[in-house]
Design brief:
- By secondary structure, the protein is of the alpha/beta class.
- The chain folds into 2 domains: 5-161, no CATH class; 166-379, Vaccinia Virus protein VP39 (Rossmann fold).
- It contains 12 helices and 15 strands.
- The strands form 3 sheets. Strands 11-10-9-12-13-15-14 form a 7-stranded mixed beta sheet, sandwiched between helices. A 6-stranded mixed beta sheet has the order 1-2-6-5-4-3. Strands 7-8 form a two-stranded antiparallel sheet.
- Helix 1 crosses helix 2 and helix 4 (132-139) packs across helix 5 (150-165).
- The longest helix has 19 residues, at 92-110.
- The protein is globular, with a radius of gyration of 23 Å.
- The two termini are 37 Å apart.
């Protein structure tokens, strides 16, 4: 989902009023106040201005700007946590909400360090790298010079490297190449579930909300004759179809634009919806956060009508939301039953990502207990 904001920003430089376009792929509104800064500004002064809502347009050395951003981040991260009363236990749902708020405030503060860009995506600063390709992949062509945050540019560069190098997928024995704005499939456990669960049919499968196309590709590699993958995001559709071609499964798999289900019925329908019912704060977070479990509910409520007789719907879902107190198992089962579905089987696995073992993570208790499941669902016979 693209939430790009294009607007105008103004500032005063060398006693002259200036303006430029504002770009934000993350949907951040333009700053109301901008001052010019260079290598002479201290990290404390820059941090104070950013906290006050004043953006800094950088005119110094590019590498010094990166170092300044790191210094500002250290000042945010060293803030002591709020003191708790003795014996007080904070509910994990509250810990989660405070963590999300802190993340949002951190992003807003660090996003106040701005860079100038020419219309060809050249950054006119000393020691600036060539970021033209990374910017083109994210922004597309632009008509005029603009300003954007250094933090966003670093994200663009990181996404470009993910796209260039790809993500090794053990279940495929090959790499998936995510595009900018399309969530990278870095958690191997849910892919392994789809690679190993017993197939009800090899005739046809739907992959709902395909993203990079990784699950559709796994099904095609397992011998499913036709896989119809769907997504609402044009970037995801382009990404998935390019991956299908690169993996040589494009004769079997195709990604099309659809709101959840394509037309028709299938003996296998797979969906890996966002796992946490919360509001995303950036386009990329739509792959993780699903307000009020909208996509999960949409998939469950439409599943029975799109399954063939004795067909199966595979719901890939983590129980992290349950451990965070954001959705209970009873609520999930009520959604399943209310959609006219029954549970055929459930295959569980433990996450292997680094955060599950990071005791310094504020959400460590929930992450350590997390289980990812493939729910095999069938329609209740009428």
């Amino acid at each position: 989902m693209n939430e790009q904001i294009n607007a105008k920003v103004s500032w005063t430089e060398a006693n002259e009023a200036r303006s430029a376009d504002w770009h934000s792929e993350g949907g951040t509104p333009p700053p109301k106040r901008i001052v010019v800064a260079d290598d002479t500004i201290s990290a404390d002064a820059a941090y104070r201005l950013a906290c006050e809502g004043t953006a800094l347009l950088w005119r110094g050395d590019f590498q010094n700007a990166r170092q300044l951003l790191q210094a500002m981040a250290r000042r945010i991260d060293r803030k002591p946590p709020a003191k708790k009363k003795e014996g007080e236990v904070t509910p994990l749902s509250e810990v989660f909400n405070k963590h999300r708020l802190a993340q949002s405030q951190r992003a807003r503060t660090l996003g106040m360090l701005l860079l100038p860009f020419e219309a060809d995506f050249t950054v006119p600063l000393r020691r600036a790298p060539d970021v033209r390709q990374a910017c083109l992949e994210a922004y597309g062509k632009v008509e005029a010079p603009f300003l954007a945050s250094l933090r966003e540019l670093l994200g663009l560069i990181g996404a470009h490297e993910w796209h260039r190098k790809g993500v090794e997928i053990a279940a495929l024995g090959e790499r998936i190449h995510p595009h900018y704005g399309v969530f990278a499939p870095t958690r191997a456990e849910y892919i392994k579930l789809v690679a190993e669960a017993p197939l009800p049919s090899k005739e046809l499968a739907f992959d709902i909300g395909t993203g990079t196309g990784v699950l559709a590709a796994v099904l095609a590699k397992r011998g499913v004759a036709q896989v119809v993958a769907t997504d609402m995001d044009p970037r995801a559709l382009t990404c998935a179809n390019e991956n299908f071609k690169r993996l040589r499964v494009n004769r079997q798999a195709n990604a099309i634009h659809a709101d959840l289900f394509p037309d028709g019925r299938a003996p296998l329908i797979v969906c890996n919806p966002p796992w946490v019912p919360a509001r995303p704060s950036s386009p990329l977070e739509h792959a993780v956060y699903d307000p009020d479990s909208r996509m999960l509910r949409g998939f469950l409520n439409g599943l029975a009508a799109h399954l063939t007789p004795r067909g199966e719907g595979w719901l890939i879902l983590s129980d992290l939301a349950e451990h965070l107190g954001l959705r209970s198992r009873e609520e999930l089962m009520s959604m399943v039953e209310g959609a006219g579905l029954r549970v055929i089987d459930r295959i569980d696995t433990k996450p292997t990502h680094a955060k599950a073992a990071d005791s310094s993570d504020p959400l460590h208790t929930a992450r350590a207990a997390e289980v990812t499941s493939l729910w095999r669902l069938g329609a209740i016979a009428s």
